[in-house]
Amino acid sequence: MLKILTAFFLLSLFFAACEKEGNHRLLESRALELGTQISDSTQKVLAGNLKKAIAEGGVFHAIEYCNLEAMPITRKMEEKYGVKIKRSSLKVRNPQDRPDENELSLLRHFDSLATAGAPMTPAIRWLDDDHLLYARPIMLNKGLCLSCHGEVGSAVSDSLYAFIRSKYPEDRATGYKLNDFRGMWSIVFDEDQLEKAD
Fold it and tell me: Is residue 189 in a domain?
């Protein structure tokens, strides 16, 4: 009888583990889908506002605009989607974008793939039992981006870089070339939210 109970108990544990694993995969799939939608939407809003700022007053005005508005816009997108959104990098401009340990690990992973010329796709990492991190590489694939993130003294004029440093004294986000790996989207989902997603 004890052997039967033990076998039943072990079998129950096995099925519970399988169910949990299946649920985790479903949540990871939802996080990948929603993360891509949210990062696309947030990028579209930020890029649209940046283009408008450049049209209104040039690159200097765009730097001023980003300094004042990029974070508030991102916070509004967080409220809209009920997630934590961040753009992080190995070379940050805004200190608020500094990577935490999980982000740093993923940034290094993406950077090594970029260095090797390997394809990069979004990644999911469980932060704990209740939260998932969606990470998506950001490539510098528009020439306009080099005006603020390119080589100082050529793509980024000395006067513009002095202005950038006046707004971001700890800036490290220059020296990039077209199609370089720039950083990543970091979006943190709550498990409950993903379970309710259609």
Answer: yes
If phi > 0 it is left, if psi is from -120 to 50 it is alpha, else beta; for residue 36 that is alpha
| Total structural domains within the chain | 1
Residue 89 lies in a domain: yes
Which residues contact residue 88 at a Cβ distance below 8 angstroms, ignoring those fewer than 6 apart? Answer: 97, 98, 99, 103, 107, 183, 184, 186
pLDDT in tens, 83-129: 999 999 999 999 999 999 999 999 999 999 999 999 999 999 999 98
In angstroms, what CA-CA distances link 51 with 2, 11, 42, 139, 155?
Answer: 72, 59, 14, 18, 18
What is the mean pLDDT of the segment spanning 130-146? 93
Kindly state whether residue 139 falls inside one of the protein's structural domains: yes
Structure tokens at 43: 């990028």
Residue 171 covered by a domain: yes
Determine which helix (DSSP H) or strand (DSSP E) holds 137, and give its type and residue range: strand 131-140
